[in-house]
Amino acid sequence: MKAIVRVALKKTVLDPQGRTISAALNSQGYAAVRDVRQGKYFEIDLADGLDRAAAGAQVHKIASDVLANPVIEEFAVEIRD
Amino acid sequence: MKAIVRVALKKTVLDPQGRTISAALNSQGYAAVRDVRQGKYFEIDLADGLDRAAAGAQVHKIASDVLANPVIEEFAVEIRD
Predict the structure, then answer these.
(1) Chain B neighbors of A46, CB-CB under 8 A
(2) What kind and span of H or E run contains A53?
């Protein structure tokens, strides 16, 4: 069983790295790009035999305790079989 | 229209950062974690009026030219309305 965790700065927090990428893309001719936000992405391989709900709860705890800084970042967890 | 691009090291490339996170989680008692791979994640806000196929093609080009290093990294593009 796999879990995908995406961590990104909250929408209300300025993301200078994303801004820079967006400006760079615009200057390279990608005019359709209006904004870019960058974040981290974790693919967690979990032991088999965990049920989906338990896996979700555990990964949620891992994300909020270890992978993300809840003060300035938000995260999303997705469980895949 | 939004595009999500996930960039991660190829499966054949050692990911020391992911290994470290995995070991740290195990030592904190998360025994169900077998492996972690870390990558980058970009949320690209695109201008309205692009059709889905054109947006996909453009973001695919952005990902392979700018966001990822195709020698050691692989990427996945997802278009959302």
Answers:
(1) 32-34
(2) helix A52-62
**Which is it for strands B33-46 and B2-9: parallel, antiparallel or unpaired?**
antiparallel
Mutate: best of B30, B48, B74, B79, partner A, most A CBs <10 A? B30
Domain at A2-80: CATH code: 3.30.1280.10
Close Cβ partners of B73 (under 8 Å, ≥ 6 residues apart): B7, B8, B9, B10, B13, B39
Write out pLDDT tens, residues A52-81: 999 999 999 999 999 999 999 999 999 987
Residue A78, beta-bridge partner list: A4
ipTM for this model: 0.84
- The CA-based dihedral angle spanning residues A64, A66, A72, A77, taken in that order and rounded to the nearest 10 degrees: -50
Question: What residue of B is the nearest CA neighbor of A46?
Answer: B33
What is the domain partition of chain A in residue ranges? Answer: 2-80
